[in-house]
Amino acid sequence: MLAPPRTKLALGALSAACFVSVTSENLPVALLPQLAAGLGVGDSAIGLLMTGYALVVAVSVVPLVALTSHWDRRTTALVTLGMIVVSNLVMAVAPGYGVAVAARLVAAVGHGVFWSVVASMATRLLGPGQGGRATAVVFAGNSLAFLFGLSASSWLGATLGWRTAVLAVAGVAALTALVIRLTVGPMPAEAAAARGRRVIADRSLLPVHLTTLLVVTGHFAAFTYITAIIARYVHLTGAATSTLLFAHGTAGLLGLVLIGRHVDRHPRATALITTGGLAVCMVALLAAPGPGVAGVAIVFWAGPAAGIGVVLQAAVLRVAKSRPDLASAVYIVAFQIGIALGAALGGIGSDHGMLPATAVVAAVCGLGAALVVRRSAAFAG
């Protein structure tokens, strides 16, 4: 069934919000060399901008989601987008590393709240039984962030400076908030509020959280340092890096479309493609005989990576039908711990001249996640 025009506009606005959230969160990835040089710190310190961000989200998301559980969902989205605007405005004028850290924390506080409601908002727009499809539609913004957001940020950082790139993200976030205000109608919180303790202790969700922790840790161990990986294995640096990031994002968008079409009907198969695909791409990168094959492995890596959020969020919505917001909040804790742990592990490898170890971690974690998916009823159709 085709969605009415107003619903399409609303879904597009939510997808745009996902785009700006992901672009803002991953700016240290796209701007790693420029930020390191501009702030006078090493690559691992810039990686900590990802780790610290993720830890703040992990610690704050459950209490903040509970605190805002009675807010109108549109209001929640607008407030969290406003925090992204403020965060990047401060980041753009940061005189040193300490202010940059503080600026990142502003957006981190609202990040988990936004992601705990956006999928359920999209599901309410499309209707029951469409959780996977709705999630795929709005999460297209994630892939577009890697296709355009990060590659454009990388290009801006290399040509006009990292402050210009960060300021541009603030402007896009402000515009997105305006579009949501105009296209998404009021969306009061649902009356059936979840009990926090029962959601946290729900054993049916444990395999989803374990899969999340494993696959996200592995992905971000390598992805946080993707610019360094590209430089080492593909021999591209500076503005040329944005070309490969663009190809990476294009592959991610295609992967999202394919996974989004099948996730509701074949949840286990799509989850296995996502988790096992990560392991396969990392092994291919490590075994690549030259820069051409390594570049292909990096591009194909985006396919399974794009499906991570879709298959896992869809599993949460499928298992926790009556309590999606708080269940999503707990899932986000696992996701953000995975980001923090992955970025930290990748930083250790980068600092000690063991960049290939980041791909090894990703391969092992992807394989472990695939084994959990294979055995878990949470991913059954």
From TrEMBL:
Highest taxon listed in the record's lineage: Bacteria
Database matches in PANTHER family: CHLORAMPHENICOL EFFLUX PUMP RV0191, PURINE EFFLUX PUMP PBUE
Protein name as catalogued: MFS transporter
GO molecular function, one term: transmembrane transporter activity
Residue intervals passing through the bilayer: 48-68, 75-95, 101-122, 134-156, 162-184, 205-230, 236-259, 271-288, 294-317, 329-348, 354-373
Domain Major facilitator superfamily (MFS) profile: 10-381
Cellular location(s): Cell membrane
Key words of the record: Cell membrane, Membrane, Transmembrane, Transmembrane helix
Entry-linked Pfam families: MFS_1
Membrane topology: Multi-pass membrane protein
Keyword Cell membrane found: yes
PROSITE patterns: MFS
Cellular component GO terms held in the UniProt record: plasma membrane
